[in-house]
Write a structure and sequence with these properties.
With about 100 residues, the chain is α+β, with helices and mostly antiparallel strands. It is about 40% helix and about 25% strand.
């Protein structure tokens, strides 16, 4: 899991779409599609896409992930899985 990106003076807290997928136990491609639908409805702005390298079995793979600001993570998780919203709150509060 990539983890929450810490804030600096000119940066807001963010979380990747891959981490959201792990949090709500969903496929990453499904989470990305959900984000795109929410963007189309005008609820959130299109987040930046970031390429990350992950280890899958015995090979290194590059995956495109969205990097969402804190507020938008709540919107996406609430849309995907209301029962997992508490997990997100706990994650942001450092309880996990």
């Amino acid at each position: 899991m990539e983890g929450i990106t810490p804030a600096s003076d000119n940066q807001t807290l963010s979380m990747s779409s891959m981490e959201i997928a792990e949090l709500v136990e969903a496929r990453h491609d499904s989470v990305k599609r959900a984000i795109e639908r929410i963007v189309e409805r005008g609820v959130i702005s299109l987040p930046p896409m970031v390429e990350v390298k992950i280890q899958r079995e015995r090979r290194l793979e590059t995956v495109s992930t969205y990097q969402l600001p804190k507020r938008d993570t709540f919107v996406v998780v609430a849309q995907l899985s209301p029962e997992f919203t508490a997990r997100l709150v706990d994650r942001w509060q450092g309880r996990v």
